[in-house]
C-alpha cells in the first residue's frame, strides 16, 4: 500500500450489491474512458471482459450493468440506482451508448471464466476499437475489494505512510504509538487523516457517511416484497421491526431485544444492498450491515453522540486499514472472513472505544471479532449477495457486540494479537480453494437447490 488507507477509502457511498463486483468495476470502467479522450472521433466500440470471480458471479452481482454504468461516466456515489439498472435496456433500444468524451459507441460486456494469473481474482480488461476492429487502447484492471481498483502496470507511488504524524503498519505499532503519546486509536487515526485533508473536510465526510448509514437502515426497514434474482427471498426487516414494536407495545419486550435490534438493522442494510440500493461500504458492500448496525445499537442503547460516532468510525477505520494492508478485504481473495470478519472486527473495536475501552482493550475486541470468523468461506447461492450474506451480517453485528463486551471485561491482555489474527486470515485465504472464494462453485452455493 502506498498511502494512508483512511475513512474516505474504507467507507465509500455507492450502490449494491457488491463493492468488489459492482462499485469497483464501475469505477474502473469510468477511469478507463476518462483516460481515452485522445481517441475521440476514431473510437467505435468498447469491449469489457470480466475474468475469474467477476465472471462466475458477475450477473448475480450486476457486474455487467455496473461496467456499462462506468462506461457511461456514472459514479457509484452519485449514480441514480434506477438509471443504472435501466442501462441494458437502453443500450439494446438505442443500439449503442453515449460515452463521455468519445461519443456514441457500441458496447459489449463479455465473460471469461478463467482466472488471469498471477493477479487478483477480480480482473477485467477494457478494449477500445475503431470501426475496423483495430485496438486503440487496452487496459487491464483489478477490483481488489471494498471498491478499491488497481490498473495493471501502473507505476507504484511513493510510500506516504512514513510522512504521517503517527504511522503504523500493524497493530503492534498502533498500540505502541498510543502508549507513547497517550492518544486513543481514534485520535491517532484522525491526526493521520488531517495530514492528508483539512480537519473540517474529514469531520464533514464522517457526518455524511453516518447519515448515509442511517438512511440506508431506514430504507431497509420500510422495504417490502421479494428480492431480485430468482431465489424468491422475501424482505423481512419490515416484519421483524413490526414484531419487535408490537412486543414493546404490549409491554413484553424480548430479553434479547438489544441484539435483536442489532440483527434487524444489519438485515435492513443488506436487504437494501441486495436490491442495488445506496449503501456505504464498511469495508465492503457484502458486509455493509455490520458497522451501521452496531453504531446504531450504541446510539440507541447507550445514548451515543455525534462526537462519539466520529471516534467509533475512526477507530473502525484504523482496524479495517490494518486488515487491508496486511491481508485482504476481498471475498474473492480470502473468503467471507475478509468481509464480514473484518467488518465485525471494525465494529467491535469502534464499540469498545466509545464504551471507554483502552487501546489494548480496543485491539482485543477487534481480535476477538476477527478470530471467530477465521476460515469463513464466500459461497453466495446463485451468485447473489443474499444467502447467506444477509444473515451473516446480522451474526457479525451480534458477534461484534459480544466481542466488545468480552474485551471490556478484561484488562487488554490476551494470547492472540490482532496482528496474529490478520496474518492467520491471510494464510487461510491463500490455503482456501478458489471454489470457496466468491465463485459460487462450492459450499452452500452448490449444496442448496436454487428455487
Written description of the protein model:
By secondary structure, this protein is α+β, with helices and mostly antiparallel strands. It folds into two domains: 7-151, 60s Ribosomal Protein L30, Chain: A; 161-447, no CATH class. The chain is 50% helix and 11% strand. The chain has 19 helices and eight strands. The chain has helices spanning 7-10, 19-34, 53-56, 63-71, 81-85, 87-94, 171-181, 185-194, 199-222, 237-249, 257-274, 290-302, 306-326, 331-334, 340-354, 359-371, 389-408, 418-431, 444-447; strands at 13-15, 45-52, 97-99, 103-112, 122-129, 135-145, 148-151, 278-280. A six-stranded mixed beta sheet has the order 3-4-2-5-6-7. Strand 3 and strand 4 form a beta hairpin. Helix 2 packs parallel to helix 4 (63-71) and helix 15 runs antiparallel to helix 16. 53% of the residues are buried.
Radius of gyration: 22 Å
Largest sheet: 6 strands, mixed
Alpha-beta classification: alpha+beta
- Counting DSSP H or I runs of 4 or more residues, the number of helices is 19
Shape: globular
Q: Give the fraction of residues assigned to helices.
A: 40-55%
Strand order, largest beta sheet: 3-4-2-5-6-7
Number of strands: 8
The number of distinct structural domains comes to 2
SSE pattern:
HEHEHHHHEEEEEHHHHHEHHHHHHHH
Assembly state:
single chain
Mean pLDDT score = 95
Q: Bin the strand percentage.
A: 5-15%
The poorly predicted ranges are none
Rounded to the nearest angstrom, the distance between the terminal CA atoms is 42 Å
Amino acid at each position: 500500500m502506498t498511502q494512508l488507507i483512511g475513512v474516505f477509502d474504507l467507507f465509500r457511498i455507492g450502490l449494491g450489491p457488491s463493492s468488489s463486483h459492482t462499485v469497483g468495476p464501475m469505477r474502473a470502467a469510468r477511469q478507463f474512458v476518462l483516460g481515452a479522450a485522445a481517441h475521440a472521433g476514431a473510437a467505435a466500440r468498447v469491449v469489457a471482459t470480466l475474468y475469474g470471480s467477476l465472471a462466475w458471479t458477475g450477473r448475480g452481482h450486476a457486474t455487467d450493468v455496473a461496467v456499462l454504468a462506468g462506461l457511461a461516466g456514472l459514479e457509484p456515489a452519485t449514480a441514480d440506482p434506477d438509471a443504472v439498472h435501466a442501462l441494458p435496456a437502453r443500450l439494446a433500444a438505442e443500439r449503442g451508448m453515449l460515452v463521455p468524451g468519445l461519443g456514441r459507441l457500441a458496447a459489449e460486456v463479455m465473460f471469461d471464466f478463467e482466472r488471469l494469473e498471477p493477479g487478483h481474482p477480480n480482473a477485467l480488461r477494457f478494449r477500445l476499437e475503431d470501426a475496423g476492429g483495430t485496438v486503440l487502447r487496452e487496459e487491464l484492471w483489478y477490483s481488489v475489494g471494498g471498491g478499491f481498483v488497481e490498473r495493471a502496470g501502473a507505476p507504484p507511488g511513493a510510500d506516504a505512510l512514513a510522512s504521517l504524524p503517527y504511522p503504523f503498519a500493524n497493530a503492534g505499532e498502533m498500540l505502541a504509538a498510543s502508549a507513547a503519546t497517550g492518544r486513543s486509536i481514534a485520535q491517532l487515526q484522525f491526526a493521520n487523516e488531517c495530514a492528508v485533508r483539512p480537519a473540517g473536510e474529514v469531520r464533514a465526510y464522517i457526518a455524511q457517511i453516518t447519515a448515509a448509514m442511517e438512511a440506508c437502515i431506514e430504507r431497509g426497514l420500510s422495504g417490502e416484497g421479494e428480492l431480485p434474482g430468482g431465489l424468491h427471498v422475501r424482505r423481512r426487516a419490515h416484519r421483524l421491526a413490526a414484531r419487535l414494536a408490537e412486543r414493546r407495545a404490549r409491554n413484553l419486550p424480548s430479553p434479547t431485544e438489544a441484539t435483536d435490534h442489532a440483527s434487524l438493522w444489519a438485515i435492513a442494510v443488506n436487504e437494501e444492498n441486495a436490491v442495488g440500493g445506496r449503501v456505504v461500504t464498511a469495508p465492503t458492500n457484502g458486509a455493509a450491515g455490520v458497522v451501521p448496525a452496531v453504531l446504531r445499537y450504541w446510539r440507541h442503547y447507550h445514548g451515543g453522540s455525534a462526537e462519539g460516532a466520529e471516534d467509533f468510525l475512526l477507530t473502525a477505520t484504523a482496524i479495517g486499514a490494518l486488515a487491508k494492508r496486511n491481508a485482504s478485504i476481498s471475498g474473492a481473495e480470502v473468503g467471507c472472513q475478509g468481509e464480514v470478519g473484518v467488518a465485525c472486527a471494525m465494529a467491535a473495536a469502534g464499540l469498545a472505544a466509545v464504551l471507554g475501552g483502552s487501546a489494548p482493550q480496543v485491539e482485543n475486541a477487534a481480535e476477538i471479532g476477527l478470530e471467530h470468523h477465521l476460515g469463513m468461506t464466500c459461497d453466495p447461492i446463485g451468485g447473489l449477495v443474499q444467502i447467506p450474506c444477509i444473515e451473516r451480517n446480522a451474526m457479525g453485528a451480534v458477534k461484534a457486540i459480544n466481542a466488545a463486551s468480552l474485551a471490556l471485561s478484561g484488562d487488554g491482555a490476551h494470547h492472540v494479537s490482532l496482528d496474529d489474527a490478520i496474518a492467520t486470515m491471510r494464510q487461510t485465504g491463500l490455503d482456501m480453494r478458489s471454489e470457496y472464494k466468491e465463485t459460487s462453485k462450492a459450499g452452500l452455493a452448490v449444496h442448496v437447490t436454487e428455487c
